[in-house]
Amino acid sequence: MTLNLVGAGAFIFWYLVSRGGGRRPTQLNLKAKDSAPPLIDPAPVQAPAIEPLRRNVAPPQVHPDLAGSQSKNLNVMFNYNGHSWDAYEVLGVPAGASIKIVTEAYQAAIRRCDRESLEFLETAYKAILNKSA
What we know:
Blueprint: H1 2-18, H2 51-56, E1 77-80, E2 83-86, H3 87-91, H4 99-112, H5 115-132
Antiparallel strand pairs: 1-2
């Protein structure tokens, strides 16, 4: 028994000494200069002559049907239970769908959903109604 205790004590002593418990962790010195070589050799960059290029560039072409129109965001986002949702995606209709299609999709969804999802679907439907009003 004594021999086992001496052997276990020697093993614990060896483990603690070989582990290097007295060393301090490495510290990052942000004020030290970077000793690594640069990844790209800094070569003098000459600025291109921009003025002659600007004269030869044609203005961007715009389709006649879209002239004077502004883009419109079709998605309706709403928050439910701490998350952001797209109302059209929740109801399974394409973004910007008409109120008639949205109402049909909402009525079909509430017929086949459970009680927990009813409030979620209703919130999505009301978000679309509020956006279109």
